[in-house]
Known about the structure:
By secondary structure, the chain is an alpha/beta fold. The protein has helices spanning 11-14, 19-29, 60-73, 99-112, 127-138, 164-175, 182-190, 202-212, 228-246, 251-254, 257-270, 276-287, 293-300, 317-322, 325-333, 349-353, 413-419, 456-459, 520-529, 540-548; strands at residues 43-48, 77-82, 117-122, 142-146, 153-155, 158-160, 377-382, 385-392, 402-410, 432-435, 467-470, 482-484, 504-508, 513-516.
Amino acid sequence: MSGETKDLRSRVWFDRTDTAGFFHRTHLKSQGHLKEMFEGRPVIGIANSASQLVPCNAHLTELAEWVSRGVLEAGGFPLVFPTMSIGDSLMRPSGMMFRNLMSMELEELVRANPIDGVVLLTGCDNTAPAYAMGAASVDVPSIIVHAGPMISGSFRGRTVGSGTDIYKLYDNSRSGKLPKGAFAEAEFGMSRSIGTCNTMGTASTMGSVLEAMGLSLLGTAGIPAVDARKKSSAQRAGRRIVELVGADVRISSIATRQAFENAIRVNAAIGGGTNTTVHLLALAGRFGLDLTIDDIEANSRPIPLMANIMPNGDFLMEDFFNAGGLPALMKAMGDLLHLDAMTVSGHTLRELVRDAEIYDPRVIATPDAPFKSEPALAVVKGNLAPNGAIIKATAASPRLLKHRGRAVVFETIEDMDARIDSPDLDVDADSVLVLKNIGPRSYPGAPELGNIKVPRKLLDQGVTDVLRISDGRMSGTAFGTVILQVAPETAAGGPIALVRDGDVIEFDLSRRCLTLDVPEEELARRRESWTPSAVVADRGFRRLFVEHVLQADQGLDFDFLRGSSGSAPSQRRPY
């Protein structure tokens, strides 16, 4: 039988003749499972993050049926189990707040149950990294099936992209350029199907990046959610996980140092979202790999932008898939990647991309003639961000990539909301907007509030972008000259906490430098009188988060979750 082995974890549950074995088997048989399902077949858990509260993932239950079909065909025993689902379209303050919780749930469910291998059905922004982190911690054979993007949006005769065009339409509405009622009307045309955002936001980025790591079957993450090929790819994943279990190919054997470097480089080439950094750093920590924010900069810097996709460019994920998708882009990258890295398919990247083609060079460029010559992601440091900060340079305004201006400071998001559109706000086109207290501890979860609105006063003058800095994050669908994830954050006493109105801030992308031009003696005086804002986190998961979350340069994981705890089942028996 395909995948049969004497070392299956599930045998601890089923290969026994005592009361515990009886109990385990009889309750599964109550669902109609045949006795041969318990006779040497590998048990494949299908982790399902479907939820109507997470529209990106709403169709995953259907995909689970196709995975089950593939598992049965390959001689496995499929068992679908639900987990929590986290989305960024409805959850407050942010899905990121619950990424670590979801990873812990998956880890414990896999370890506690007779699961030999797991298929991870993911979709919205934080579900893919959460599942990958949980699987890394328990380290069983694993394969990711990504939800896929929704089809392209359409509004008043033009193509619109998730998130990216929301910000553009909103600014046009605020400035009076958009007819009354048109902003609300756009809701019906922007999201036309199930699936993740159709721009290169965090969800599409993480689907692509984890695929580049070798954790999904190559070319499958980008299949649109409603495309029939999404179902067949799920079926193939079901077949393949049985083979992975049979060969005892664990997730840690795929997610090597070279795989992470491939992920970082592909992220740069596709213009991936800035959230990729915290997810990759957290995931590496679960594997015990020494990956730092400096490694992300070093591996991103030589890679030009090759994908012409919003918010960096003009096209959408459906166009990217039709143009050849990730396999074509990775083939074009050539020796910029570790092509001999192994994947869950059992083949190397070199073997998988050999026959890939670019069908539309408007959408997928080459390193020799890139869409943009600079890398999409850059890590900047300086006395304002001693542990680093992130900018998506390809979605920024070129005129602001070397800039010096005076700070306009907002102490909290509420302070910003109250004053950002005031005609009395002392701001001009050269100002640097600084938003504090939206970091992982100060506004638990580091919500995607870093894409600070351009003040109405400037919009009326025709100014559509200014340099913006915060200790929070922003949506991968967003754009603008925005420096994010400043570390340490305000609540941790990072230098950003000491910035005051009128201070001069200098940013130079070419030198990867972010400087607060204030004498050290003055900063020392300010620190003596500084006290952190109170954070209300007196119970439950919120308290756990605030007390144990690491800073952005360490991936926002919990300090007690670093490293793997293994897959050995508990020897304690219920009966």
